[in-house]
Amino acid sequence: MITRSRQVALALTVLLTAGAACQARDNEAQGRPGPAAGAFTLVASGGVLPHDSIIERALFDGGGAGHDFRPMLAGVEPVVSRADLALCHLETVTGADGDYSGAALLKSPPQLADGLAATGYDGCSTASDHSLDDGVDGIHRTLAALDRAGMRHAGTARIAAERTAAVLPAGPAAQVAHLSYTYGTNGRPLPQGQPWAVNLIDEKKIVADARAAREAGAEVVVVSVHWGTEWQEKPDARQLALAERLTAAATGGRPDIDLILGTHARVPQAYEKVNGTWVVYGTGDQIAGVTTDARGRQDPRGSQSTIGRFTFSPPGRPGGRWRVTKAEFVPQLFDVDAGRVVNLNRALEQGADVRGVRDRIRDVVLSRGAAKDGLVMGK
């Protein structure tokens, strides 16, 4: 009898093979050099959450004829496009026929996917508390927009088979499986008869999916989790407990998960090495409008975020673990007045007075001792 895990693994094997060919063509077309000795760099950024002001800015940048998100993201394009693999977190769904909203039920223009792709992103996690803001149709439109932009996606699905990992080749040798889960959908029930439409956090399911991806041939397994307490810089008890258990899961002495990427808290949170695996508890939001906290007060931290950058190197023996040999974070700010993402270290080099914001983000990121495990601030 073929088990469910084996069925998933067989499906992923097909995706791994197809994904490798697609990525090779993408790299050739974009002129991306492969990293030396088989190593590759992976970058991952925070939530893309277009509020009304963001949608209006994109319309202005598009000259009024359409929405253009490329100028908004231009400040991080050098970091994103130079990585071998770049992952984003698309927190909203795509609206239909001009019905776009950045308040309450969030529905973004389809051109958002084009802007992310033009910036250099290869794929997005899509499981979030807003995944069902426009029901099943919203999921379908979102994934169709990403497909048209040539981007992979994980976390939401149109059919049951699509809920498996997105497979993204990285560098000359590695196959990376990307999985995505959310704590919930703001009280909206999963569509009747479609429990696979949104991946909800379930420890056993996450581990099973990671093992299936590994069995199918993925050298590196990355898990995105939409979790945590909004406006809280310290990871909460549930984040800490789940991170501990997921990083402890192993098969044959090899960890099942190689990197955990967290979103949802609205503010940057710490990075930490847990059981030998890097965990980003919260990146913050890469794009968001003016935000207010639980008491209705404007909170500038909602415009602050990080990009994680991890260099993975191949194992010394067949079947061994690909290890992170360099771990970095790049502090960012979304300038809500200009409607632009700002790389704070680059801005400092150009004379901008942003040292206080940069240093505050740095202190939060390093607050759980990641510096002793080698985490450094990058540009």
TrEMBL record:
Residues 292-317 are annotated as: Disordered. SMART domains: PGA_cap (SM00854). Residues 41-290 form the Capsule synthesis protein CapA domain. InterPro entries: Capsule_synth_CapA, CW_Biosynth-Accessory, Metallo-depent_PP-like. Residues 1-20 form the signal peptide. The keyword Coiled coil does not apply. The keyword Metal-binding does not apply. Keywords: Signal. Gene3D superfamilies: 3.60.21.10. PANTHER family: PGA BIOSYNTHESIS PROTEIN CAPA (PTHR33393:SF13), POLYGLUTAMINE SYNTHESIS ACCESSORY PROTEIN RV0574C-RELATED (PTHR33393). Belongs to the CapA family. This is CapA family protein.
